[in-house]
């Protein structure tokens, strides 16, 4: 008895450890994207997101002003300026005149450049280069310096992404595609699942077997034939290609087999006594479906809604085939794909765009997650 209790405790402890590990593996990348989306570009390049709350130091190169900017004072010729721009929050800690020794001199110290020429660079980036004779030549002197960046966050990345990069429009386009492509298959599958579970008609078993067989059909294999068929039917009825209607029907077709299979497994397990009592009271199949089956099936409907919404929201392939690539129809995934090509070095834009993309799926999942496991488990242990 004691041994079985020990094994049970170890089993529960192992499950908790596994769940905690999965939560950490999922949370850390999401947290990294969020933190990076709130940082400046130079901070992202200089250090990782896990150092966002600490001061980071990195080495850069800069040029002093040219000889045209020199002034004469007390018998010496001076070139003055600032390595940092206005509003720069960095602090210069050291500087150097050679790439091999970028931190040879401390900030505020005077470096001897030879021939009586000196250079002083202060921690605020201001500098003074002094010479007993006038500076000549058009090329400005290049120096190196180490600067520390304090923890600093900004919302400018989100402003740029939502209003300048076209993400806002693509966000609306994705909602336009995803919401109907989630609702339509649920409506159709709910009626079909009830009919296959509780109504008797010829060919019912064959239809169920066909639906199960469609679960293993690869999307990539059926995509082009489906597009040709849609274009042919659309041309016959005068419906243009590359419309939202086409992608709604495509996602409905790809999602229906799994939806019908999942919903039928759940609906078939509902108590038979409830159905028989309703029929004795004179209720029709439609009334039973609307007033009894649908309210009892909400957990499994929510489970499929999560699956379908996440799949359609993150889809790129179907959107590229059934929609145009202009701004009026480009979805978020396609927009991000373009940003990866044109903004490959702008990590602040990419991370911000990625986080904007996952906000809606996160909201949908957390709002429906209490029904998620309940619906899946109920559909897996009941059959008809």
Structural overview:
- The structure is a single chain.
- The protein has 13 helices and nine strands.
- It has helices spanning 2-37, 41-46, 156-164, 167-198, 204-214, 219-237, 244-267, 272-280, 285-296, 298-313, 317-322, 332-342, 347-381, and strands at residues 56-63, 71-73, 76-82, 91-96, 105-106, 110-114, 117-121, 126-131, 142-149.
- It has a five-stranded antiparallel β-sheet with strand order 2-3-8-7-6, with no helix packed on it. Strands 1-9-4-5 form a four-stranded antiparallel β-sheet, with no helix packed on it.
- Helix 1 (2-37) packs antiparallel against helix 13 (347-381), helix 3 (156-164) crosses helix 13 and helix 4 (167-198) packs parallel to helix 7.
Please name the defining characteristics of this protein.
384 residues; 5-stranded antiparallel β-sheet; 4-stranded antiparallel β-sheet; 59% helix
Fold topology:
Layout: H1 2-37, H2 41-46, E1 56-63, E2 71-73, E3 76-82, E4 91-96, E5 105-106, E6 110-114, E7 117-121, E8 126-131, E9 142-149, H3 156-164, H4 167-198, H5 204-214, H6 219-237, H7 244-267, H8 272-280, H9 285-296, H10 298-313, H11 317-322, H12 332-342, H13 347-381
Antiparallel strand pairs: 1-9, 2-3, 3-8, 4-5, 4-9, 6-7, 7-8
Shape type: elongated
Largest sheet: 5 strands, antiparallel
Spans where pLDDT lies below 50 across 5 or more residues = 379-384
Q: What is the terminal separation in angstroms?
A: 38 Å
The percentage of residues in β strands lies in: 5-15%
Question: Secondary-structure element order, as H and E?
Answer: HHEEEEEEEEEHHHHHHHHHHH
Total DSSP helices? 13
User: How many strand elements?
Assistant: 9
User: What class do helices, strands and sheet pairing give?
Assistant: alpha+beta
Quaternary assembly: single chain
> How much helix, percentage-wise, in residues?
55-70%
Instruction: Work out the radius of gyration.
Output: 32 Å
Averaging pLDDT over every residue, what do you get? 84
Spatial order of the strands in the main sheet? Answer: 2-3-8-7-6
């Amino acid at each position: 008895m004691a041994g079985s209790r020990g094994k049970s405790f170890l089993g529960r402890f192992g499950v908790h450890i596994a769940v905690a590990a999965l939560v950490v593996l999922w949370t850390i990348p999401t947290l990294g994207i969020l933190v990076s989306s709130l940082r400046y570009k130079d901070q992202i390049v200089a250090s990782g997101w896990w150092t966002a709350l600490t001061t980071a130091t990195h080495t850069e190169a800069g040029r002093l002003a040219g000889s045209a900017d020199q002034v004469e004072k007390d018998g010496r010729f001076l070139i003055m300026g600032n390595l940092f721009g206005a509003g720069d929050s960095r602090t210069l800690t050291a500087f150097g005149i050679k790439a091999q020794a970028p931190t040879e001199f401390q900030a505020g110290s005077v470096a001897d450049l030879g021939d009586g020429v000196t250079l002083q660079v202060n921690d605020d980036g201001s500098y003074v280069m002094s010479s007993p004779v006038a500076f000549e030549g058009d090329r400005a002197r290049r120096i190196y310096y180490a600067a520390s960046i304090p923890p600093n966050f900004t919302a400018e990345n989100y402003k740029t992404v939502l209003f300048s990069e076209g993400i806002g429009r693509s966000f609306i386009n994705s909602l336009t595609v995803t919401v109907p492509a989630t609702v339509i298959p649920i409506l159709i599958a709910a009626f079909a699942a009830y009919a296959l579970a509780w109504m008797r008609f010829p060919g019912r078993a064959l239809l169920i077997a066909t639906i199960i067989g469609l679960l293993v059909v690869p999307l990539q294999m059926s995509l082009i034939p489906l597009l040709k068929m849609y274009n042919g039917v659309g041309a016959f009825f005068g419906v243009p290609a590359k419309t939202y209607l086409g992608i709604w029907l495509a996602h409905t077709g790809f999602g229906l087999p799994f939806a019908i299979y999942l919903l039928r497994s759940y609906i078939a397990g509902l108590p038979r006594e409830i159905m028989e009592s309703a029929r004795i009271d004179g209720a029709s199949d439609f009334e039973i479906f609307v007033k009894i089956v649908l309210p009892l099936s909400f957990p499994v409907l929510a489970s499929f809604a999560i699956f379908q919404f996440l799949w359609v929201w993150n889809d790129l392939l179907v959107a590229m085939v059934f929609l145009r690539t202009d701004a009026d129809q480009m979805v978020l995934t396609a927009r991000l794909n373009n940003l990866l090509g044109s903004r490959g070095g702008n990590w602040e834009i990419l991370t911000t765009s990625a986080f904007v993309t996952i906000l809606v799926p996160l909201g949908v999942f957390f709002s429906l997650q209490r029904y998620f496991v309940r619906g899946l488990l109920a559909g897996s242990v009941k059959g008809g």
